[in-house]
Amino acid sequence: MKVALILITIIPAILKSQPNCEAFLYYGDSLRYKACKVAEKREGYYQFSKEYQTALDEAIAIDPGFAFAYEAKSTAYLKSGDFVSWIQLMDKAVALNPKEHLSYRGWCRYQFFRDYEGAIRDIEKLDSLSKYDIGHSVNAHYHLHVARALCYKALGQKKKAIDIIESQLALSDYDPGLFDYLHLGVLYLETGNYTKAEVSLLKQQEINDLAENRYYLGLLYKTIKLKEKALHELEIAKQKYQKESWLFDPYTQPMDKIYLEDIDEALSLFDKMDK
Question: How many domains is the chain built from?
Fold first, then answer.
């Protein structure tokens, strides 16, 4: 499969929304209120602009403990590829308010930098600090525990990854994510549990039917020598791919993503077997 290309330069503004400045005033923090109101001046400007950055610099000058301003400033550096400045700003934001900013730093470490160990540390630290659910990634596609599981998978700890996703899916108040069962099914396929792999991939089909779950289901049926079913799933996978019904992220290659050549290669193996 293709190697991921990390297209940092076109990352959108995926930061948290501006804090409610009036809340600071209500709780008697007039300095934070003043800094917050100054930070509001950046709204309507692009992150790279002088106006955007100056407003945040002024907010930080008023209140150096205003963590939100550091994270907001960091976006432009992430976009421009200045990762040293980005991490310095994010580290400052996390140091000042870890409960609010660990999620963003942890997700970026996973999605953009493939820093799986760093992402795990951030997400698990956030979990230890939180009394409630730690929430989702900034693009809302993944619960952070599922992202943590994928980090463990990338580090070769597939059993641990399975346990984390299964535990998340077992929660009564949890709505499965768009790709949870896909990743779980692939994990089961890779670890040889074909029965659970089939169940998970069929569940993915019910929730969000993609070329990927059809492709991996085709590989599963091929492995257990159900040729007709394998061919059927691979043909559907190809149709879905051609209709752009696939696992997609505009900035990085998601884990377990496939390409048309992967499907064609799998189909060609059947052609060779028939000759």
Answer: 1
Q: Among 182, 190, 169, 179, which Cα is nearest to 213's?
A: 182
Q: Which residue has the tokens 């470490």?
A: 109
Within a domain: residue 162?
A: no
Taking only the tens place, the pLDDT of each residue in 236-275 is 999 999 999 999 988 889 999 999 999 999 999 887 666 5
pLDDT of residue 272: 65
Domain span at 228? 202-275
Residues 6 or more apart whose Cβ sits within 8 Å of residue 165: 145, 146, 149, 180, 183, 184, 187
pTM, two decimals, is 0.90
Side-chain-side CA neighbours of 215 within 13 Å: the count stands at: 27
**Cα–Cα distance, 239 to 246 (Å, whole number):** 10
Amino acid at 241: Y
235 assigned to some structural domain: yes
Residue 74 inside a domain? The answer is: no
Mean pLDDT (whole number) for 139-166: 97
- Measured CA to CA, the distance from residue 19 to residue 22 in angstroms comes to 9
Residue 264 lies in a domain: yes
Contact indicator for 230, 183 with CB cutoff of 8 Å? no
Contact between 101 and 67 under an 8 Å Cβ cutoff? The reply is yes
- Nearest-angstrom CA–CA distance, 222 and 217: 9
